[in-house]
Specification:
The chain is mostly helical. The chain has 17 helices and no strands. This is DUF1186 domain-containing protein.
Length: 301
């Protein structure tokens, strides 16, 4: 099967079957197909708009997982640019991939270059779920032995004052994401003191994490925390078929859907699920999506 035929076959979802043979052909022809897969994300904003306008389009999703499996560093910045386009459009075109596997994808392609991941974490224009997934990518790199736990905790402590000041219109999702991922790694002594101060000042919402959770993280210890994380899907993408084969859209008994859909915006944190299912956020995302549709309609006239 030639490259053009593979790319065409991966373009849209026509039935409820995972295209195993086609994906295996893509893997066999890794060297030739890689540049075309990377091109799925360039230029980022234009590609997002094109994909959003075609609900059947799914090739960008295959590209994310294939490039992650290839551990392709040339895909790193294009993917970062793609997921960093401001607003919620990235959620519309990827479904629950951002909250489920984006962290694994970024960790797989970054080649230990942490600068783009850190820039994404600190960029307030980026979708908050993308920023949270970028934090979790650092945890995956720790679990995989690519970077040290201490270096990540030092970084979390470094950005803590800025994130402490950052608020959103709901419940300070990013700040509490930073808190929970810090607990997942068993914070070191200086960060423990920072966290305790925020508890005492009531900056930390007990709806997210309690002081008992901090004590549990400390008691678990560094080795225990990493072992706990390793059992929670915090690893590199190594098999696209295994990673996406469970999607409901690939099973005939599941309701028909074009792309994997959001399932409560769950982030895989050890101490809590980072959920954002409140009515206000749903209403906000629906309004933004409707606005984009109206803008596209105006352009077509």
């Amino acid at each position: 099967m030639d490259i053009a035929a593979i790319m065409e076959a991966l373009k849209e979802s026509h039935d409820s079957q995972l295209p195993r043979k086609i994906l295996k052909q893509a893997i066999v022809q890794q060297e030739d197909i890689t540049p075309l897969l990377i091109a799925e994300f360039i230029p980022a904003a234009e590609k997002l708009a094109e994909i959003d306008a075609n609900p059947d389009y799914i090739r960008h999703l295959y590209a994310l997982y294939l490039l992650a499996q290839f551990r392709e560093p040339q895909a790193y910045q294009p993917i970062i640019d793609f997921v960093s386009v401001p607003g919620d459009i990235i959620m519309d075109v990827t479904g629950d991939i951002v909250t489920e596997d984006l962290a694994n994808i970024l960790a797989s392609v970054c080649d230990r270059n942490l600068v783009p991941i850190k820039q994404t974490i600190e960029n307030t224009d980026v979708n908050e779920y993308v920023r949270s997934a970028s934090m979790r990518a650092l945890l995956i790199l720790v679990v995989e032995g690519e970077i040290s736990r201490e270096s990540v905790l030092d970084y979390f402590e470094e950005i803590w004052p800025t994130f402490r000041q950052e608020t959103d219109d709901d419940d300070d999702f990013i700040y509490h994401s930073l808190l929970m991922y810090s607990l997942d790694l068993c914070p070191h002594e200086s960060l423990i003191e920072v966290i305790r101060q925020d508890y005492e000042s009531k900056r930390i919402s007990p709806d997210w994490i309690t002081i008992q959770d901090l004590d549990k993280a400390i008691n678990l210890g560094p080795e225990g925390s990493i072992q706990r994380l390793s059992g929670r899907r915090n690893y590199f993408i190594t098999d696209i078929i295994k990673s996406i084969g469970w999607w409901g859209c690939f099973h005939s008994s599941a309701p028909k859907q074009k792309r994997p859909l959001p399932v409560g915006m769950v982030q895989l944190s050890g101490f809590a699920e980072l959920k954002k299912t409140d009515a206000k956020r749903k209403k906000k995302r629906q309004a933004q999506k409707q606005s984009r549709k109206q803008n596209r309609s105006k352009k077509k006239r």
